[in-house]
Amino acid sequence: MEGFRVDFVTADDKPDWRPLFDGYAEFYKTSITDQIADQVWDWLLDPAHELEGLIARDQRGKALGIAHVRACPRSLAGGYLGFLDDMFVAPEARGTGAADAIFSRLSKLAQERGWSALRWITQHFNERGRGFYDRYTGGPSDFIVYQLKRE
């Protein structure tokens, strides 16, 4: 998207990434400790780890959003899809095209890597995000997500 740059995170991006990651956690009413944030950051910088991070910036270089994505095996297709674990755009940047820029980059990444699809989940209360996602997908998939929590 014009006016935005979406790149893989580098070690220099941590001061810009962390407030966005904290904002993402706050949106989902989750506490992020320094230990958790440092672990995720280490994953994002480790080329051997499957999780990769993208950061969106405006023309002035201000960080506006993040996405964390990874390849996920798709056994019935004998290939891979991309799984978007996390995506967050700063509240002041919503509606500016920053989210579209992230999705454009994710779509190109999926094509470059031969992923058959890009998949993600969101909470039912994320109405604005769901409206955005619906523009790209036409609506939610037919799948229902279950989670077995550890006691």
UniProtKB/TrEMBL annotation:
Keyword hit for Acyltransferase: yes
One Pfam short name: Acetyltransf_1
SUPFAM superfamilies, alphabetized: Acyl-CoA N-acyltransferases (Nat)
Domain of life, source organism: Bacteria
Gene3D superfamilies hit by this protein: 3.40.630.30
Domain N-acetyltransferase: 6-151
CDD domains: NAT_SF
Alphabetical keyword list: Acyltransferase, Transferase
GO molecular function annotations of the record: N-acetyltransferase activity
Protein name: Acetyltransferase (GNAT) family protein
Species: Marinobacter segnicrescens
